[in-house]
Amino acid sequence: MSRIATTGEVLQLIRSGEATTRAEIGRVTALSRPAVTHRVNELLQRGLVVEDAEGPSTGGRPPVRLRFNASGGVVAVASLGASRTQIALCDLAGGVIERTDLVIDVEEGPDTVLGLVMDTWEKLLEGRGPLAGVGLGVPATVEYARGRTESARVMASWTGVEIPPRIAKRFPVPVLVDNDVNVIAMGEHRDVYPDQDDLLFVKVSTRIGAGVVSSGKIMRGALGAAGEIGHIPVRDGGGVLCRCGNLDCVDSVASGTAILRILRERGRDVETLADVTVLVRQGDAETMAVVRQAGRWLGEVIASAVNLLNPSVVVLGGDVAEMFQPLVSGVREVVYQRSTQLATRSLKIERSRLGPGAGITGCALLVIDRILDEV
């Protein structure tokens, strides 16, 4: 490092394993021995680092190794969905300590929903601590700097709500809020594709949204609106009016809500996506065709994103993508046809491996990265 390394940068060296002894830290950072000692002692006092078993000796007394202390604090997280919310406590490495799922209709509003979430955190926190921060993922466009929901996909009553101050009144720690698909993308990237620094995560559920990882970091855009692919129109969508006021947005023709609507219009008795799953497994030709066409429409939009962003992997998540292989096949068919040869040369299109748990992991990482970077 060419400049004077901060305590936070020393912590990152220890977390990553790049430097785990005082001597190694000195070599990597060019800090003097007293400066290294000062920073390490600060981390030890804060409980973020512990001295581990003695390392191998190269002559003389073996060096004491330093290890990041994941149990040095607790992070409270929640990933809100349209009807189901995942709530958990995580350690400082993002590992889940305890988790519970609640069936909550987010349209009941922020007062009711946040109240239930905070009550649950309080119960989970009994006998644990210290609480280091809070992370929340919501199905809405979020002005990240303020934690303000600007355009809610499935929770219109939340639009314009600044969430962190509401939570900080009860839990006076750093509170970070982001779009639900962004936090899922973070979880998939860190846990499944840590060596892929350019990743596009597309959530296909009640609605459609995307999270973009570029050069290893979430791309949020100027006001947090990056990744809103649900309102990109497709060709030959049939003139369907989207809730945004435009016609044939991919959200209005290829989401779970759209698939149910189309199948009902064609005489299929389907109330939920589970009913669609039954028909797909039975090999119902009409249902298979509808689901695959939804995949093709989605593939149109993803193909444009692939040409623009050149990700190394596209991850399809959300209950629709996870349930329906014909939709994934439709996406692959169109993306490989319509994206450039260079952009698809090594492109992988995969279904999510983490499933719903990715949101919990991403919310934890959102908070951990912030609080540890500020050490």
From TrEMBL:
Looking at the Swiss-Prot or TrEMBL record, what is one Pfam family this protein matches? ROK
Q: Which family does it belong to?
A: Belongs to the ROK (NagC/XylR) family.
Protein name per its UniProtKB record: ROK family transcriptional regulator
